[in-house]
Model the fold of this input.
Amino acid sequence: MPSENQAVLSDRFGRVVDYLRLSVTDRCDFRCVYCMAEDMTFLPRQQLLTLEEMAFLGRAFVSLGVKRIRLTGGEPLVRKNVMSLIGNLGSLSGLDELTLTTNGSQLRSTAPALAAAGVRRINISLDSLQPERFAAITRTGKLAQVLDGIEAAQQAGIERVKLNSVIVRGQNDDEVVALVDFAMARGLDISFIEEMPLGDVGCRDRRGGLVTSEEIRQQIAADHPLLASTESSAGPSRYYRVAGSASRIGFISPHSHNFCESCNRVRVTCEGRLLLCLGNEHSVDLRAVMRRYPGDLEALREAIVAAMELKPERHYFYHDDKPQVLRFMNATGG
Ligand code: SAM
Ligand code: SF4
Done:
């Protein structure tokens, strides 16, 4: 086994994995229609990794060359004492960046502590600027609280705040330009994500609702001439800029633009399941390793290195015309 801080995580296809998305909880204060069913059963607490196990896991990944960790969920900021984990991960030497994806509801109270722990970039999900529509999409969310959270993040000095919007036909596809204008007026970046068929959310055939990145790009370009940009945020977003604006406009297109070839990431669920691909079920139970060999960093590192063999070449969301991944997005960690 290589010594700590040596980059060794690579898969059978020569891709180097240096990015970890860690889901800290499956729970959430919202119930977004594309992410969860209305009536969700969450995991019993003893099945979740403890915050100490998550910190240990972070240490193992960083020792294997992971440079970026993004915390996600569920809603990461509803996990009790999550700030202690953020502090622990933030102080790992060898980690270049600790980021977070949040629905923004808790940011008024947490943004200063996040900034103090070294979080420089966060993603905040925002699908509508209309209060009633926002309430309908999130089922339980309040737009004013999220807008206040966005402001709080900027006031706390978090340098790059990016909005994430999932655009669904007939739901919010008439708000694309309004969302871009909102982002540009505040110096925020914004990425548009194509909806993925993760989990049975019950209500509809998702393919009918798919609005492709290209369609969204054309809607924006009709109002704001877009300049393609070569910038990257270490993720699958393809970026554009509007002349005279600091905001970047990104497109995450799991359906229309396959980015698997350059995939540099893996995910760990809040139960400690290492997922090698968002669109496949290949996984390894790292919780079992940590509970069988408590405190044994080498055992954990070996399990992670061995798991890279399972990383599939690309994602397949549909099999025989049926969605094949049955995990909900909140369990996977977006
Ligand atoms: N609760 C946090 C939030 O909403 O930002 C973090 C977790 S959430 C699962 C992460 C991202 O996944 C959000 O931007 C959300 O919009 C996106 N998401 C959820 N379900 C999705 C789906 N079925 N297809 C595409 N994106 C989805
Ligand atoms: Fe919660 Fe985020 Fe899923 Fe919405 S997208 S239900 S905020 S985890």
